[in-house]
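Whether sequence alone determines local backbone shape is best considered at the level of individual chains. In the encoding step, the backbone of a single protein was reduced to a row of integers, each denoting a local shape. For completeness, the protein is quoted in full, as a sequence line and a line of structure tokens.
***
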Amino acid sequence: MIRGRGERDYGSVLLGSASDGPTKRRVRIQTILTGSIVLSNFVGAVVTISLSSVGIPEPSTFAPEMWWINYIAVPIYVALAFVIGIGWGTYTITRDLRWAIRRQPPTAADARRTRRVAGRLLRLQAALWLGAVVMFTIMYGIQSPMLIPKMFFVIGLSGAVVVGVTYLLIELALRPVSADLISAGYRRRKRSGVLSRAVVAWIVGSATPIVGILLLVSFGAFRQDTSKLDLFVGVFVLAVISLGTGLLLTWLTTTSVTGPLRSVRNGMNKVQAGNVDVDLVVYDGTELGDLQVGFNSMVSGLRERERMRDLFGRHVGREVAEAALSSDPALGGTERTVAALFVDVIGSTTLAAERSPTEVVEILNRFFAVIVRAVEQQRGLVNKFEGDAVLAIFGAPIDLDDAAGAALCTAREIARELERRVPELSAGIGVGFGPAVAGNVGAIERFEYTIIGDPVNESARLSELAKRDPRRPLASGRTVDVANAREAAHWEEQETTSLRGRTEETRVYAAVVDD
């Protein structure tokens, strides 16, 4: 199940959501990749024109004898490069990313081909610009040998900018595909991935323009016809290009870092708010991807812990579970004054004989649900399910101001609700009160929280008597005596009897049945 995801699953709104369909995903990936190539080459073209015409105006490339280069060779090469770059690139992307576009599980061969997509596109761009360097340096050099260093530097610098921008943009565009590979188990961590991005940004955005400025100043110093204005204009243009490309590359590099960090931060905010049902999309193959994987592992552990905590609370009671988790549990107990409520089904053997096991379990589950709900409403603890009987405790482990009143009220509620919600069976309900030992009983390897004492025995014996009239739960006299007056008014003395296993006589009270 995908959890905690949205429009920034891949660190950018442009890349959409992990829940996008095949068509939408294909359009996004292809559009962003094609746009990346077009944008980077557009930046390269701007750099080339700016440097050749304004930054380094002399020697000029606009002499009349060079018309065939400027107006025939250059447009034809640019058009061919555009067609080859976009056409071949689109074909390669469609072929190698077919599994990702169709949202199919990748094979090992798919993973290998996919990892080579970015490299092939980059090599293609580099080859096209290298061809331009060689071709136009030779062409312009034939017309004027003084243009050889100028064209080599101008086109070479532009090609470096294009390759650097393309590298960062392709990495951004392929994030959804990288996420699918990583989730499928084909994760190959890049060595120093973040450092590589930073180095590329520095080389293209800062180092190369600075080298260009140094070369421009050096050439100007050895040329007699170079004026101060020419040097100033050339340095100014290179500085502007450096500022522009540096800003673009810095933004792309920063985005590649902040995207994964932002996803982790958002995930941490959700966990801090109490939502551990969060999974991040791991799309980065660098150290930042390790951070995303680590977050998912941490949240998975928290989910497992919460699941165990919930199961633990369901088995032993949430109050007991909280007490055990907040301290180091040990064997032994303390004396507490508690009220015990015992509920025992009448005719369980007949019920099992007349109905199928599935029906019996369904009826008993409804029976237990009524009891658990009523006990928890009065802050009691359902301590044991003993076959078709239930023992509940009031006053331990949570102290109650009126444990007896809470137990008596619960007994009446259970009797009413069983008659209404579980008409297939009836039960005897007894309530006892008095001192008992409450604590962990068993061995150090396996123990349980329970109470041992007279109230438990008393409530069990009273539940046997109560089977005579299941509508009227029974309670001991001392339970009614210590309960609040409002609750005690719902009980009336019925008899005085000797309960089984007890020497003293017990005053027995029965709940008043409302007409």
